[in-house]
Amino acid sequence: MSNASSAGLPKVSLGWSGAIDSSRRFRNARRSLASLCLALCAPAAFAAPFNYVANYSSNTVSVVDLSTNQIVATVPQTVAATTTAAATPGIGVGPLGVAINPAGTRVYVANYGDSTDLKTNGTIAVVDSDPTSATLNTVIATITVGVRPEIVAVNPAGTAAYVTNSVGNTVSVIDTATNKQTTTIPVPGVPIGVAFTPDGKKAYVTLADKSRVVAIDTTSNTAASTTIALSLGNPVGIVVNPAGTFAYVADYGAGDSGQAGKVSVIDVTKDVEVATIPVGIGPIGMAMAPDGSHVYVSNYQSGTVSIIDTVTNKVTAEMIVGSLPLGISVDSNGAFAYVNLSGGNGVAILDLSANIVRGPITVGSVPNYSAVTSSAGLTVNLNQHGLTGAWYNQSTSGQGIVLESTADANGAGHGRLFAGWFTYDVTAAGGQRWYSLQGDVSSTDKMAALTIYTGTGGNFAAAPSVSPVAVGQATLQFTDCTHGLLRYTFSDGSNRQGFIGLTRLTGGATCTASGDSGMAVAADRYSGSWYNPSTSGQGLILTPYTTSQGSSLFGSWFTYTPNGQQTGGGASQSWFTLQTKQAGPSDSSYTADILAGTGGAFMTPPGSNYKTVTVGTANVAFTTCTTMSITYSFTDGVNKGLSGTLPLVRLGQPPAGCQ
């Protein structure tokens, strides 16, 4: 979240061997895996748990569960006392800025409209966001601050909140232990944005009418006598990078007149502007990636978000998000950003792994700013069969990962993760590519360290065996049983690195955060990796699962073209997905379509040339917990006319419950 406003398995590769008028105030101040998965697709969101969104016109705060993208609570407006009932504390008039403490237990909302005129003090509503509390998502305190409070930020220690009061030229300091204002700090201009340095020793405040930023010493609570001059007017949002070396300021400029804005870069060690970065029209809200690699800027008049690379100080992408974007928040894993569309009563979802806009999530009227609770402390026991299944990212639909998690493979508490990653070459013309990922884990690990392997030069369902080659490293973590994050770095000369937010597609019958809830039963017993020892280096990862309608199956077949040995290289690879059209009566026998995808590119959204077609059928039969067969018949594609039966054995040990 932002404080600113804004006997183990063999190690082989598939080794089978502001309000709507906020700009005026500032100025006056001066396809697909979805197509592969049929109806099986899970909700497309990453598990940064909750987003608290201030709805300026409806005087409410929407609480959005980001694992489902659904509103789970609405914090209502204050209800005044009557002759028969006491007042009910709630959100004030015109909620604008939002911040959350580092523990994620308190949300602070600046009620701009509680200042009914230019002399009346505004308020801060304190919302209980502690999931263990009996008063969860209710207002537990209301704090009087200065006139027209705009933005609120909580210091890194969680002990104080700073509130910019745009009328009166002050910043209020709130003691978060007592929920009282302890002092006000005079500043030399109209304060709007505020952000702390990581050590909490300074707070930087934008002065919208002066085209300047002022630094506040948080020990003495005094503003510096010298302000930092900026190149463009109306500075609004501000963030400081995690290293505490640079601050980034959204200079709104004359956005209402169509003038493009800029982002000023301030060297915090010298308190001087060192660069300006052109962005869209009317930049207002800002957010920082948790690792400091990127800054995200909402451009109010353009309806876009600019993404800035903080190494080069250049915009690498600008995405259309919707009408009048204001606040922007990034989840603590840096996988998704959430942009409040004040002109559209919604929150746009930015998948930052692919720079794709999804949503929006409908919230209250005129959403301004928001704060996302952290998922950094959420971990799932990696040593459990329940993580076995198919995983994908909706933005890069048509690609995915099929994971096998073998609990206690290396002794009690020590397991192993093995995954097949079906994807494409870096260009759409390159064709299919696949990799395997594997590594040892323990029940105390928060993150799995995996090696990425590739295999090339094999032949479909025939010799020779293929030896794997390591081509990179990856980490894999899970915030709950349906959401994960894969970060990867390739060492094959391609310079590919990045991350993928993953959502579960199948499996997970026994998964809990602490470990398996029981033994694998029914179809789940057969989930895992299967291969033929005579053609080691290719095989299938299958995830049978049971629904109320019966048993179904999804899986991937990692193999080669019929002449792959002659072709060599990545072009020798071939993969298919298997899925049942409808559930069948048996846990151990399935009739499935064989599908193939073409025209995709590595971790890129499906383009116009992308398509998925059925290329054959297969009968999958599990005879024991360690033996099975697949009888296939191809009617199209590179394997057209091929048919046969492959006997397969399980790679590694079966899950508990399968004997």
What does this structure look like?
The protein is an all-beta fold and 659 residues long. It has two domains: 326 residues, YVTN repeat-like/Quinoprotein amine dehydrogenase (Methylamine Dehydrogenase, Chain H, 7 Propeller); 266 residues, no CATH class. The protein is built from three helices and 44 strands. The strands form eight sheets. It has an eight-stranded antiparallel beta barrel. The radius of gyration is 27 Å and the shape is elongated.
Strand neighbour order, sheet with most strands? 29-30-31-32-33-34-35-36
Share of β-strand residues: over 45%
The domain tally reads 2
* Average predicted local confidence, pLDDT: 90
- The helix-and-strand class reads mainly beta
Low-confidence stretches: 1-47
Q: For this structure, what is the CATH class of the largest domain?
A: Mainly Beta
Sheet having the most strands: 8 strands, antiparallel, barrel
Count the DSSP helices. 3
